[in-house]
Amino acid sequence: MKAYILSLGAGLIVGIVYSLMGVRSPAPPVIALVGLAGILLGEQLIPVAKRVASLPELTRFVRQDCVNHVLGKLPSHGKRDA
């Protein structure tokens, strides 16, 4: 965490110097940075979802309660179901 704070501080100092000199920053536009943040967050969604899905209580809830509610009673085909 310390490295992130130092990096942010260094960026702020450079931004102030650029502003005092009247120079535009060579940094990408904000929209590109938002896209990069989305990529970083998206990379973490699957591992987090896998970890949450592996919790026994959640798995039981989905298999026992949600399946019946979402799918309802599945139709039977008489003798073929035996």
Automatic annotation (TrEMBL):
- Give UniProt keywords alphabetically: Membrane, Transmembrane, Transmembrane helix
Pfam families documented for this protein: DUF1427
Keyword Transmembrane helix attached: yes
Judging by the UniProt lineage, the source's domain of life is: Bacteria
Chain segments annotated as transmembrane:
29-46
* InterPro entries in alphabetical order: DUF1427, XapX_domain
NCBIfam families in the record: XapX
Report the protein name in the record.
XapX domain protein
| Species | Sphingobium chlorophenolicum L-1
